[in-house]
Amino acid sequence: MNDIAFQPPADDRRTIRNRTFDEIALGDEAGLERTLTAADIQLFAALSGDVNPQHMDPAFAASTRFHGVIAHGIFGATLISALLGTRLPGPGTIYLGQTLNFLAPVRIGDTLKVSVKVSARDAAKKRLTLACACVNQDGKIVIDGEAHVIAPTERIERPRTALPEVHLIDGAGKTLLDAVQPLGAIRVAVVHPCDEASLTAALDARRAGLIEPVLVAPRAKLEAVARTAGLDLAGIAIEDVAHSHAAAARAVELAGGDQVEALMKGSLHTDELMSAIVGHESPLRTARRVSHCYLMHTPAYPRPFIITDAAINIAPTLEEKADIVRNAVELAQTIGVAVPRVAILAAVETVNPRMPATLDAAALCKMADRGQIAGATLDGPLAFDNAISAAAAHIKGIESDVAGQADVLVVPDLESGNMLAKQLEYLGGASSAGIVMGARVPVILTSRADSRETRIASCAVAVLIAHRRRRTKP
């Protein structure tokens, strides 16, 4: 009997080979391991047409007996099929039938160990019966059953086919664009877009009807980038400046003179741009501390939410955190949350004098009680699970208008916020937009590693803010 192997040898990742009927004995088994992502569920729905809201609609799924999105049951069966067709018996296998029992739900983030084991052989017909199982990371069997196949009789060995890279267009991003486009484009100073990524992002946002860019950069350098990348700058305003520092200064001047309604970071460093915006002589400086907000949407949570501050304030003081909250509340109200629920995060949900984040959380909540922070409902300290999971809050006996349904997550410091946002984006399938609040105009702040969708979404959020400020400007 061969031992089960959940990780194929290195050469098996380049080659696919079978095992003939005569090579297979009772008890032989094979396995694979797979962690379920939001993209897996979305792609399976796209291929199958099964858009049951239990799998696709976080708000609906949160109200069901499963308290959240779960995978299609048959998704696990496809992993069993993958084992039969690629490992045991492998290529040449003819699938005759299968019985399955679906014993427990599979959620985003669950890791499944999928196995098949030969339980019967029919030498006359070259048929095999294999016991099948999917077991989650807690050792719980979520699917079991039996497969019946005709095993190959001839050896097959082929190079493993490279799968195409699949990109899913997030539905939340499309909803945001649909809401923003009727408002009309805003004029935006794009600061030093002197690389292909940042210049392309500005032109993409223009084509999407979101912004009318004013490119603030050395003209010769800008045109060289455009030629190399095959980009057309015809009809686009260019403010010719000597270097990136001058670009930041000129962009701030344009915004201060109401010639643009937002700024967009190009290829210069964030510190260089922000120094120009918050400098003592800057016309964009306000009495409020500037802060960065990630507007995020993940399939595992029923509504968009904000993480702040994950990009500007490294270790904010209590006073600075109060402004961070105020900025996030303004953004939440801009996207339609009249009274946002704000969770002040810490490692625990109780006040601990040795953990400054818990003391700041308690102080911020009292400031809200006394009207120093208005327009929102605050609670904290709350651990992350209590902030986003009503079940976790209930288990810990937390009664709160915020716990389990937060619209804003205020992190203790930049490091924790940045890691949280990136984990949600890269492991949780979250879509995101990045914006700086607290200045006289919104600042579209994205990373070189951000996707086109993130850059477009960030511009869309800036459009919402600019149009709201038109209505409320004295």
Indicate the radius of gyration in whole angstroms: 27 Å
- What's the pLDDT, averaged over the residues? 90
Distance from first to last alpha carbon: 80 Å
Q: Look at the structure and give the CATH class of the domain at 287-438.
A: Alpha Beta
Sheet/helix structural class = alpha/beta
DSSP helix fraction: 25-40%
* pLDDT < 50 stretches: 1-11
Which CATH-level-2 architecture of the domain at 287-438? 3-Layer(aba) Sandwich
Largest sheet: 11 strands, mixed
General description of the model:
The chain has 474 residues and is of the alpha/beta class. 42% of the residues are buried. It has 15 helices and 18 strands. Among the domains are: 10-159, Roll (Thiol Ester Dehydrase, Chain A), CATH 3.10.129; 287-438, Isopropylmalate Dehydrogenase, CATH 3.40.718.10. The model is unreliable at 1-11 (pLDDT under 50). It has helices at 38-48, 53-56, 58-62, 73-86, 171-180, 196-207, 219-229, 244-256, 270-278, 318-334, 356-369, 384-388, 390-395, 414-426, 452-472; strands spanning 15-17, 29-35, 94-102, 111-122, 127-135, 141-150, 157-159, 186-191, 211-217, 237-240, 262-265, 291-297, 305-308, 341-345, 377-382, 408-410, 431-437, 443-444. α8 (244-256) runs parallel beside α9. The protein starts with 14 loop residues before the first strand and ends with a helix. It has an eleven-stranded mixed sheet, sandwiched between helices. A five-stranded antiparallel sheet has the order 2-4-5-6-3, with helices on one face.
